[in-house]
Amino acid sequence: MSQEQAQPAYTEQQVQQFAAEWQNKQPSIERLALMEKDLALLIEVLSANSDLTAQPSQFEPQNDVIIHQSEQTQVQQTSSTDSLEAIIAANKAAEAGVQLGLYLTPKKVSYQVLKLKRDYPAVLNGLDFRFKTREQKGVTVYGLRAGPFANYTQATAFCEIAKRMGQTCVTAPFIGEML
């Protein structure tokens, strides 16, 4: 027998050291896993809240005031205001819906739809699902949308039921890519 075949890859002392290190690191690993869940929830909340500030306030000026060196004031209509108004008009024209959470991949959106349909078939009967892609601080997130509802009153009532079941829910236009 050769000496190479008789020697194990790790000695018992090394295995014990690895096990001790793993035991020492286990609380840190668990803490990191919790932080990862908290971060995903924070991204979801921040993304959901960003819809609330997308519309300009009625008190904000619709035009930018530009003062040139000659002290003359010139008012210029911005194209970003026009595009924002077009988005707002499109959202108002869209049917009422709800957003049932934000996910980091389209695959997770599809999985959540299957899970919801399995767990709550009666509640989700007659609803279609879409997902809306958007960029939030350099992170692409996918919002799961359900609808259409006859109006936002029905969508709000649905959200109240969904929240009682532990599901994240906010009213939102029923727009996005079909699933």
Write the layout of secondary structure elements.
Elements: H1 3-6, H2 12-50, E1 64-67, E2 73-76, H3 79-93, E3 96-103, H4 106-119, E4 128-136, E5 139-149, H5 152-164, E6 170-173, E7 177-178
Antiparallel strand pairs: 1-2, 3-5, 3-6, 4-5, 4-7
Describe the structure.
- The chain contains 5 helices and 7 strands; from the N terminus they run ααββαβαββαββ.
- It is α+β, with helices and mostly antiparallel strands and 179 residues long.
- It has 3 domains: 11-50; 58-93, no CATH class; 95-178, 2-Layer Sandwich (Alpha-Beta Plaits), CATH 3.30.70.1070.
- A hairpin with a 5-residue loop joins strand 1 and strand 2.
- The termini are far apart.
Largest sheet: 5 strands, antiparallel
Integer average pLDDT: 78
Sequence of secondary-structure elements: HHEEHEHEEHEE
Tally of separate domains: 3
- Read across the widest sheet, the strand sequence of neighbours is 6-3-5-4-7
Determine the structural class based on helices, strands and strand pairing: alpha+beta
Q: From the 3D coordinates, which CATH architecture of the largest domain would you assign?
A: 2-Layer Sandwich
**Overall helicity:** 40-55%
Shape by Cα distribution: elongated
Low-confidence stretches: 50-78
| Rg of Cα set | 26 Å
CATH class categorisation of the largest domain: Alpha Beta
Q: Look up the CATH topology of the largest domain.
A: Alpha-Beta Plaits
β-strand percent reads 15-25%
What is the CATH H-level superfamily of the largest domain? Sporulation related repeat
